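Structure first, sequence second, as always.
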């Protein structure tokens, strides 16, 4: 059997398709007699854009659609006219949507006329290898490009067998995709390691796959959906990806000169935290929450072999959360290696300073810790299992260990109050030396999340997100089963507090490149050098019990706990004196407080300056006149805290 594995736009341009790499490896071992080829549709689309736009539509414009405008559905819209054989379809709906939301359309408009020619050329190129089966993987914005290709493939060669799988096919979504698109012969719902070889075996024998878990198939004109697998694929059966064909395609691509390629690896599936406490807004694990992890020794062996084979040091792990076992095996092995790796990992935000230090030694340069908020009550509404001060501590330790930290400040949780935000907003200028969120974002309503599955959490009447009106020509009842994102009446804060949150996060982003708050150990004192944007340059000196107490606050403490620790060290400090001193630290911006817990803010290492960081701090936001800096902080601006 000849099989072609396909990943269409809008797969990340600088990475291989993990799904294609895994399935190619799987079929090489489970069905060695098959001829397996790959079509890297995302790269070919980028080539097509570059060639047919006289160089105007480059990888930067691809990323604009694939990443920056993912929640506007523009990537799917670019191909929707091809899917529906109507180049005007969805244009009116999109224009209305763009006026309402202020969405920039120039890039998508420039790309859309090129989509039909690309899909025709893609189908012809794939069919040149005379495949018996074409399998397409779909995640996020890959649905409509994949469907458009499947339709064109069947038009050119009706006897061809077309398959669709991937995250967009999980649960109800997969059945809806199948029954609404008769040119898709089979849809594989759930993990493909067991289902795909079984389905191909049935096709080899000419049997109907009635017994293959998760598969959707046609019974005449009726779409049937087999019950999904009850178990999950054990880590021992998750293959190592094969990226040889991708690298050849990348090296031959005209867009290669614009890219810094990265490898993609998978150590674990599911979420060990979500098994116990499913974060209320998160739907990323779909129906497969059970956590499974490869042994750390095996993961390191895979990375070692891939890096040697492809000569690429940037490695992205797609695990939704790091296995805590990797701190005992995988990370020490990586740290002991001689590879100058640059690893990305998603982690929980309550890692210790020692664990973050090990990540850095192992070559992890970029983490996504799921910080989401700095307020305890909102974090409880999320079921995050962490506190605001612990999140601030994580931000501080990321600076100490040169870890790039990506996070967003989420809001809009049913039950949150304005006073959950005001105290944090008052203190945000004190955090300007720590890595800011990428933005303040109202939460999306995702399929599979508790917010979507449990109306009692505050979203009783979810409906498909507005963007799908310019993506699919389907009734709402079908969209309810097919789409991943939903909308409902907004929850949580609105109005002035929401606007202030957005404004303060923007100011934090502006201030961070010029801000430092450094802690220096001297023989008999601690020195805190304040070089934060908008704050007068000054040095705080702490001696005696105050220096000892400040060190204890690096771990985050309540005042009673701090008093007990000082007393255990032989320093009896009265509660009023201690309380007044800590309050002075808060108004001086040296300590962050949330729900009675205090954490010291200075870093022990200066952040590595990113390219373009200015050497001279601007003075365009003078502290005394800034309405965003609370009066107490302004009053303390010229103070020196001394023993």
């Amino acid at each position: 059997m000849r099989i072609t594995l396909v990943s269409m736009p809008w797969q990340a341009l600088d990475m291989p398709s993990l799904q294609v790499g895994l399935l190619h490896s799987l079929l090489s071992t489970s069905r060695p007699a098959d001829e397996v080829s790959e079509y890297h549709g995302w790269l070919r689309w980028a080539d097509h854009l570059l060639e047919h736009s006289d160089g105007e539509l480059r990888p930067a414009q691809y990323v604009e659609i694939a990443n920056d405008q993912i929640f506007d559905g523009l990537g799917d819209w670019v191909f929707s006219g091809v899917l529906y054989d109507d180049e005007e379809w969805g244009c009116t709906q999109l224009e209305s949507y763009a006026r309402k939301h202020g969405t920039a359309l120039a890039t998508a408009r420039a790309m859309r006329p090129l989509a039909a020619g690309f899909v025709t050329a893609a189908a012809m190129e794939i069919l040149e290898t005379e495949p018996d089966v074409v399998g397409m993987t779909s995640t996020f914005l890959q649905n409509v490009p994949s469907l458009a290709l499947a339709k064109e493939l069947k038009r050119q060669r009706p006897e061809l067998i077309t398959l669709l799988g991937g995250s967009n096919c999980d649960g109800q979504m997969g059945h809806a995709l199948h029954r609404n698109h008769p040119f898709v012969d089979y849809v594989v719902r759930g993990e493909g390691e067991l289902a795909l070889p079984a389905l191909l075996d049935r096709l080899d024998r000419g049997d109907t796959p009635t017994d293959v878990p998760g598969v959707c198939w046609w019974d005449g004109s009726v779409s049937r959906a087999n019950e999904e697998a009850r178990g999950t694929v054990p880590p021992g059966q998750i293959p190592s990806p094969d990226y040889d064909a991708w690298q050849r395609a990348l090296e031959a691509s005209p867009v290669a000169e614009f890219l810094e390629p990265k490898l993609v690896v998978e150590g674990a599936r599911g979420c060990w935290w979500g098994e116990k406490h499913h974060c209320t807004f998160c739907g990323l694990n779909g129906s497969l929450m059970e956590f499974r992890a490869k042994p750390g020794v095996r993961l390191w062996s895979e990375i070692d072999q891939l890096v040697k084979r492809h000569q690429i040091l940037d490695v992205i792990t797609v695990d939704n959360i790091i296995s805590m076992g990797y701190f005992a095996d995988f990370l020490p092995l990586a740290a002991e290696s001689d590879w100058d790796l640059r690893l990305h990992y998603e982690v929980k935000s309550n890692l210790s300073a020692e664990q973050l230090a090990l990540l850095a030694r192992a070559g992890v340069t970029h983490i996504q810790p799921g910080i989401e908020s700095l307020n305890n009550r909102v974090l409880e509404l999320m079921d995050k299992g962490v506190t605001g001060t612990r999140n601030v501590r994580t931000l501080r330790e990321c600076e100490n260990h040169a870890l790039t930290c990506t996070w967003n400040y989420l809001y809009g949780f049913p039950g949150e109050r304005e006073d959950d935000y005001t105290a944090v907003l008052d203190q945000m200028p004190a955090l300007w030396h720590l890595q800011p969120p990428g933005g303040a974002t109202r939460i999306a309503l995702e399929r599979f999340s508790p917010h979507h599955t449990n109306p009692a959490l505050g979203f009783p009447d979810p409906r498909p997100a507005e963007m799908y009106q310019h993506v699919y020509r389907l009734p709402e009842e079908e969209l309810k089963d097919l789409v991943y994102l939903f909308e409902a009446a907004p929850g949580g804060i609105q109005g002035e507090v929401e606007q202030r949150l957005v404004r303060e996060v923007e100011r934090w982003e502006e201030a961070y490149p010029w801000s430092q708050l450094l802690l220096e150990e001297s023989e008999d004192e601690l020195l805190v050098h304040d070089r934060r944007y908008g704050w007068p340059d000054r040095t705080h000196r702490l001696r005696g019990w105050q220096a000892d107490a400040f060190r204890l606050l690096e771990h985050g403490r309540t005042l009673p706990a701090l008093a007990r620790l000082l007393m255990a060290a032989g320093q009896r400090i009265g509660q009023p004196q201690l309380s007044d001193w800590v309050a002075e630290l808060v108004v001086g911006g040296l300590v962050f407080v949330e729900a009675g817990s205090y954490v010291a803010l200075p870093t022990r290492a200066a952040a590595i300056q990113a390219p373009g960081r200015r050497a001279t701090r601007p003075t365009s936001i003078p502290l005394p006149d800034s309405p965003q800096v609370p009066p107490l902080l302004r009053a303390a601006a010229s103070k020196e805290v001394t023993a």
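Margin note: The two ends are 80 Å apart (CA to CA).
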